[in-house]
Amino acid sequence: MTARGRLGIMLWPRLRVLWLRLREWSGDAAYDTYVARAGAGEAMDRGRFYLDSLRRRYERPNRCC
After folding, report:
1. Based on the structure, what is the number of domains in the chain?
2. DSSP H or E segment with residue 9
3. Residue 54 is part of which domain span?
4. Has residue 41 got a pLDDT over 90?
5. CA 39 from centroid of its chain's CA atoms
6. How far apart are CA 62 and CA 52, in angstroms?
7. Does 7 fall in a domain?
8. Do the domain assignments include residue 50?
9. Residue 2 and residue 19: Cα distance in Å, rounded?
């Protein structure tokens, strides 16, 4: 195996973890997390989940400014 191949094997798992953490931090993985916790029969579709999350976010007044 070449040095480049070994580097790729060592680097790939770390990049994958970094990518997953970035998705969690940005909120991109919120629906996936919701589906994993809700169960198959009770989960909303992606569009309803998005609208519900917007409603929950903006239903209370913001104390900023």
Report:
1. 1
2. helix 3-26
3. 3-58
4. no
5. 17
6. 17
7. yes
8. yes
9. 26
Q: Is residue 43 part of a domain?
A: yes
Express each pLDDT in 9-29 by its tens digit: 888 889 999 999 999 999 889
d(CA 65, CA 59): 17
Give which of 61, 50, 60, 6 is closest to 28, Cα–Cα.
50
Helix, coil or strand: residue 27: coil
One-letter identity of residue 18 = L
- AA letter at 27: G
**Token match 């940005």: residue?**
26
- The sign of the torsion formed by the CA atoms of 15, 17, 20, 22 equals negative
- Residue 55: in which H helix or E strand, if any? helix 46-58
What percentage of the chain has pLDDT greater than the value 90? 43
Residue 1 has pLDDT above 70, yes or no: no
